[in-house]
UniProtKB/TrEMBL annotation:
This protein's encoding gene: rfbD_2
Keywords, sorted A to Z: NADP, Oxidoreductase
Primary enzyme class: oxidoreductase
Residue span(s) of domain RmlD-like substrate binding: 1-255
The keyword NADP belongs to this UniProt entry's keyword annotation: yes
Database matches in Gene3D superfamilies: NAD(P)-binding Rossmann-like Domain
Name of the protein in its database record: dTDP-4-dehydrorhamnose reductase
InterPro entries (UniProt xref): dTDP_dehydrorham_reduct, NAD(P)-bd_dom_sf, RmlD-like-bd
Entry superkingdom: Bacteria
NADP recorded as keyword: yes
Species this protein is from: Kitasatospora cystarginea
Function of the protein: Catalyzes the reduction of dTDP-6-deoxy-L-lyxo-4-hexulose to yield dTDP-L-rhamnose.
Similarity field: Belongs to the dTDP-4-dehydrorhamnose reductase family.
Metabolic or biological pathway, per its Swiss-Prot or TrEMBL entry: Carbohydrate biosynthesis; dTDP-L-rhamnose biosynthesis
């Protein structure tokens, strides 16, 4: 299969690149983080994006790029729309009439965090700019009827070029929220799941198996890897006063039985990867 992977230089995109490039012909892109072998692309360059997607002979376009940090989206809604919504319009136009499928990676932030869990059938109600842009991008793609949205939660693990998750724990003190609950997903499990889901259309969820607070997740990562940092419990408002986060985001699927690994298995794999 010939795949275009937008955002291959990012945290999630790098993990996908590592797994997919072994079995498929993958063309990956980067924006500002230059990576040898990847193609430079600014999502705001609509002509370049349309040419690459529409004339590359791709079977699948995996869209894992955009403005991800919630605080950055909250402080600049115009930029968030330009990077998270408008490129989907361009991609849909460029792929119309071709056999290529667009797979959009979306977020649990399209929900407000007031329910114990969320399936694909639950109504969306985003509470921040990032979530609203992801919901708008979903609407564009789902209106076409032939493509796929995959919503994912907080992702943890190691990535080859943008190791942003573990970078959070690089200092002597790591603040972690006790009031944010999630079902975190181990990055290496994502690509195998996508290969089993990408023939579908509509929207599907893929989340982790265990439900934990962010504080518990970071504490268990610290212990498993023996990191020289102290994980400190905080309330979310103490570290993110200007960006509202949903308090409980647990993704479950009503359309398939796939789940990410339990935390013990994931952390054992992560620790072995660090030493091997």
């Amino acid at each position: 299969m010939r795949i275009l992977l937008l955002g291959a230089s990012g945290f999630v995109g790098g993990g996908l690149w590592t797994a997919l490039a072994d079995r498929h012909e993958v063309v990956g892109t980067f924006a500002t983080r230059r990576v040898p072998g990847l193609v430079p692309l600014d999502l705001r360059d609509e002509r370049a994006l349309a040419l690459l997607a529409g004339e590359g002979g791709f079977d699948l376009v995996v869209h894992a790029a955009g403005l991800v940090p919630l605080e950055a989206a909250e402080s600049d809604p115009v930029l968030a729309h330009a990077l998270n919504v408008r490129p989907v319009e361009v991609l849909l136009d460029s792929l119309r009439g071709s056999a290529a499928k667009l797979l959009l990676l979306s977020s649990d932030n399209v929900f407000d965090g007031t329910r114990p869990r969320y399936t694909e059938d639950d109504p969306r109600s985003p509470v921040n700019v990032y979530g609203r842009t992801k919901a708008a991008a979903e609407d564009l793609l789902l209106a076409d009827g032939t493509h796929l949205v995959v919503r994912i939660p907080l992702v943890f693990g190691r990535s080859p070029w943008a190791d942003t998750f573990l970078a959070r724990m690089a200092g002597p003190r790591t603040a972690a929220q006790t009031d944010l609950v999630c079902a975190p997903l181990y990055l290496p499990s994502l690509a195998p799941a996508l290969t089993r889901l990408w023939d579908r259309t509509g929207v599907v969820h893929y989340g982790g198996r265990e439900v934990v607070t962010r504080f518990e997740l970071m504490s268990r990562v610290q212990r498993a890897l023996g990191l020289p940092t102290r994980v400190v419990p905080v309330r979310d408002r103490e570290i993110h006063p200007d960006c509202r986060r949903p308090p409980r985001l647990v993704l479950r699927s009503a359309r398939h039985s796939l789940e990410g690994p339990d935390l013990d298995s994931a952390l054992a794999h992560l620790a072995a990867d660090a030493t091997g």
